[in-house]
Amino acid sequence: MSRLRAGARGERGAELIEFAFVLPILLLVAFGIIDFGFLFKEYEVVTNAAREGARLKSLGDSTGYSTADVQARVAQYIINGGLDGSLLQPVVVNAASIPVNAGGTVNASGYTVIVTYPHRFWVLAGISQMFGGSFGTANLTASSTMRSEVQAAP
After folding, report:
1. Does residue 154 sit within a domain?
2. In what helix (H) or strand (E) does residue 143 lie, and over which residues does it extend?
3. Is residue 54 part of a domain?
4. What is the tally of structural domains in the chain?
5. 76-110 burial string, b = 16+ CB within 10 Å, else e?
6. Could you give the angle at the alpha carbon of 110 between the alpha carbons of 108 and 116, nearest 5°?
7. Does the model's pTM come out above 0.70?
8. Is residue 3 situated within a structural domain?
9. Exposed, middle or buried, 7 (CB in 10 Å: 0-12/13-18/19+)?
10. Helix ranges restricted to H, the chain
11. Residues 94, 110 contacting (CB under 8 angstroms)
């Protein structure tokens, strides 16, 4: 019986040392989840901004919205989404031919809007720099294509 007690007394600080080894890994995983959560939130805003820009430009033939109007709408959507509008890279607006799979029809015309925004990893970048690595930024790029809408005559 005394032998069991002596063995338990010798193991007294082992749990603390094991916890000290595991804690950095658990913190890295937790902060990595937080960093990637911010990345997905920003990607959602960028995707919706591209969709909003394509929607505005698809109405442009009948309402006169220009590429500058699309860029302003995308920038405003980015800012309203809580992102820094000054980091937004130039918005690309291209004419697109959209295939239509119906007998005897021609392809529809439309527009593609491409939005690129840099995401900075805060926690993972700091940790990787301590070890000489670089895990700094990732460009989030989203595109949306919409067919031009034609308003029917009244």
Report:
1. no
2. strand 137-147
3. yes
4. 1
5. ebbeebebeeeebeebbbeebeeeeeeeeeeeeeb
6. 145
7. yes
8. no
9. exposed
10. 2-10, 14-58, 60-63, 67-80, 123-130
11. no
Domain that holds residue 70: 12-147
Length of the chain in terms of residues written: 154
Identify the three-state secondary structure at position 146.
Answer: strand
Per-residue pLDDT of the chain in tens (154 residues, 90 and over written 9) = 555 555 555 667 788 888 889 998 898 888 889 888 999 999 999 999 999 999 888 886 666 788 888 899 999 999 999 999 888 888 888 877 777 666 666 677 788 899 999 988 877 767 666 666 666 788 999 999 888 876 655 5
Q: How far apart are CA 13 and CA 11, in angstroms?
A: 6
For residue 80, what are its two tokens?
Answer: 């309203």
Residue 7 within any structural domain of the chain: no
Tokens 């040392």 found at: 17
- Distance from C-alpha of 47 to C-alpha of 127, rounded to nearest angstrom: 29
